Request: fold
Amino acid sequence: MNRTFPLVALPFFVLLLASARGQDAKSPVVVKVHEGKTEVTEAILPVDPTPRIQIRPTGGMGLGLTVDGNKMLCCGDGAIRTNFKIDDQIVYPKVGMQQQLPAGSAAKKRYGFTSTFTHNNIEITQEMEIVPGKGDKSSEGKRFLDTVLIKYIFENKSDQPRKVGTRVRIDTYCVDNDGALFASPVTHPGKILNGVELKDKTLPPFMQILQRPDLKNPGFVGHYTLKMDGNLIGPNRFICTTHGIGDNGWETPAIAANGDSDCVIFWDPKPLPPKGRLVMAYGYGRSLATMPESEGRMKLAFGGNFEPGKVFSLMAYVEDPFAGQALILELPAGLERVEGREIQPVPPPPADSATSMVLWKIRVQEMGEFPVRIRSNNGVSMLRTISIQKSSAE
Reply:
């Protein structure tokens, strides 16, 4: 199958192809592929279990961040401050100290904190979770828990449409520099950023904060993850500015730091329908924040002949695969793998694409219902059930 075929069309296209091929005069069958769950369990890809970043929570959804015990990413506890705009009203969260995050799926321990408050029937929950960083690993191939994923979960408990936005102002600091400046290698290569605003289409997927304003010798580099995946809404504005000047509680001008820098991250107000829910999020830490459910995302497609004794293809399309990603195929009785190893490394994408493909060929031994599972070594698994039945026209 052509690698450039639009991924969003693949499941429907392949379903039609499979059904049509199965319904010939020799052995007519009807094939249906049922969507199953996508689950996140413990990653096989090794992650060093020791957190390398420390969250220092305060009341009012404030926090501080320190890497490796001594590399500060802001000017102390509470230097990362959050407030909201609800129906054009600026709102400050009135909550005390955060609580420890509850365990995740399969009772997996989560490192971080959470707190919740309600304003005029809008419930807002902040979650701060230490997650593995992308692109930062030890010589043994392990990744570090060196980044924090911060979410703001809005739930509209009313019967009326609302508008909600978020602002995070950070009194920045980088190891020993209270006036640390910024860089955007994707959108502004070769430049140090000071007193600028990046927004909407000009907003990069991530920003950097530099211990030293020297791109060739920056010292320690921290990362803000701004473009999010899945149902997480990333910010639409990032302002590099100075500390304590020109702030009206929401809008902030871009002013040169002059030895004392801040940054301000905005999610401009968005509609929130009655009983609706949305999640705004960003990452901050040594590395780029990762989310297992979206890192190296998969889409599955089926094609070929599904009659008993015949062979069909299972294709896993992997978007932006991570280094060392591998897929594992699990088949039930009644289906037999005839081509492709049970565990296959995901190859690098071709030069003209960001998507890789892993292929298996499978023989149908009998008709019935067959749960097929693909596992990725980042802990994500996808389940699809193939139903192969005799056609009623037989």
